[in-house]
Amino acid sequence: MDVRRRLTLLAVTIAATPLVLGGCTAEGRKAAERAARVAPPPAVELTPADRARDVPVSAEIGTSVAHGRVTGVRLTDDKGRQVPGEPREDGTSWVPGAPLAGGRTYTAEVTVTGDGGRTTTRTTTFSTAPKPTKPAITSTLYFTGNQTYGTAMPVTVAFDPGVPKEARAAVQKRLFVKTDPPQPGTWSWLEDGSQAYYRAPDFWRPGTKISVRAALEGLPIGTDLVGDAEHRATSKIGRQVSVDIDNATKQMSVFRDGKLVRRIPVSLGKPSTPSSSGKMVIMEKHERTTFDTRGEPDGGYVVDVDDAQRLTWGGEFIHSAPWSEGDQGYSNVSHGCANVSAAAADWLMGVTQVGDLVTVTGTEVPLRAGNGWTAWNVSWDEFAKGSALPVPAGLRPSPHTASPHPGAVAGGGSPAPTPSASGG
User: Fold this and answer.
1) Catalytic residue from among 67, 231, 337, 405
2) What angle do CA 185, 60, 85 make, to 5 degrees?
3) pTM score
4) Are strands 93-96 and 61-66 parallel, antiparallel or unpaired?
5) Which keywords has UniProt assigned to this entry (predicted)?
6) Does residue 35 carry a pLDDT above 90?
7) Which DSSP category does 334 fall into?
8) CB within 8 A of 147, min separation 6: which ones?
9) How far from each other are the two terminal CA atoms of the chain, in whole angstroms?
10) In the annotation, is 337 catalytic?
């Protein structure tokens, strides 16, 4: 074959290539157009319903979609101001970033893109209820912003009065937790509804940022109550520290990143006022505070203490007790607290954080559910059973014989989350 013939064949091949590619692209477009014609149009149902009145200020824009997905939501008030918000992870609704104003009118425009690429927009206009007159459940978020917490810190919301069992799912849906990096968990309720805890199966990783929103303002709770307020906080998790206290040896072992850093002699509660055994979390730290037990059983004293770290609502602390240093490491003489020397208490205050795990073993009484932040005093399986909503598949408890709810307390309910000043 001469050179001129080879060049001619090469030119024909190069010229033909774009024609073949162009044919494929055109065919692809035609296939997409056919699919769009065949696919059913997207459909969406919205809540609140159009022209609805007396809608709670906690309302979300519910979106039930067929043959498509929500690709845009715009919510504006009656003055044309846009309300920020974001969709739930499961796509069932769009959540305003703050409670709506009472006695106002809002319009939601929802855009849905169908399976074939077609879009449609639906609107709903509704009016919110004025300020509710029903009694409110007081909620308290025990998770403060701009703090550094220990790796066992549960997110805790307390309720007064307790949330009725039939209303807990609705309340739990309005409790939002985001972690960065992601470390999913679930909520768990005490039996009496007075507290709900959030944690993951394992301790938080150091450096994790946790953002919490308890969006309860105006939320209908059962038939007779409403939520009281909106709570928000973002904080981070610090270094890993844990404390083990063994009544058999009367020794406290302090660990940092899993390594033992110090042993400290302790004196725990005497037989008439024993310390609790269980997994607790440091709740408060005070350089100086006053224990006033007048009017309490086995109380009647007032004493100032230094370097006190609360473990329970009932008044068990780790604290400086120079008066019992001769007993520390040998015998129990306190009113339920963990007594340590003044020097050890001062050192410990510089090591621990609110949210660090404290495990006490070998005493006469078990820790009662709800007496402190007791989220870690049960296994993950037991904890997850306390959720009022289905637990995500990857977090579900393993199947086994049912056992008591983590909030179940033999002989009565859990103590109200009102701090007692007792100690000793």
Assistant:
1) 337
2) 75
3) 0.84
4) antiparallel
5) Acyltransferase, Cell shape, Cell wall biogenesis/degradation, Peptidoglycan synthesis, Transferase
6) no
7) B
8) 235, 236, 354
9) 106
10) yes
Q: Exposure pattern of 31-57 as b/e (b: 16+ CB <10 Å)? A: eeeeeeeeeeebebebbbeeeeeebbb
State both tokens at 57: 């200020």
Query: What CA–CA distance (Å, rounded) separates 3 from 6?
Result: 5
Contact status, residue 87 vs residue 93, Cβ threshold 8 Å: yes
**CA gap 311, 368 in Å, rounded:** 12
Contact 243, 358 (CB under 8 A): yes
The pair of structure tokens assigned to 377 is: 């005093």
335 tagged catalytic: no
CB atoms within 10 A of CB 135: 12
Q: Which residue has the tokens 């809002």?
A: 106
Q: How many CB atoms lie within 10 A of CB 266?
A: 28
Residue 28 vs residues 18, 23, 34: alpha-carbon distances, Å: 15, 9, 10
- pLDDT at position 34 is 59
Q: What are phi and psi of 377, to 5 degrees?
A: -85, 10
Among 231, 286, 319, 405, the active-site one is 319
Q: 307 is written with which tokens?
A: 């370097």
pLDDT tens track for 356-384: 999 999 999 999 999 999 999 999 999 99
The region of weakest confidence among 64-68, 138-142, 242-246, 319-323 is 64-68
Give which of 173, 138, 179 is closest to 155, Cα–Cα. 179
Q: Are 77 and 83 in contact (CB under 8 A)?
A: yes
Q: Is 152 helix (H, G, I), strand (E, B) or coil?
A: coil
CA distance 187 to 176: 10
| Amino acid sitting at position 66 | A
| Spatial separation of the C-alpha atoms in residues 287 and 303, rounded to whole Å | 14
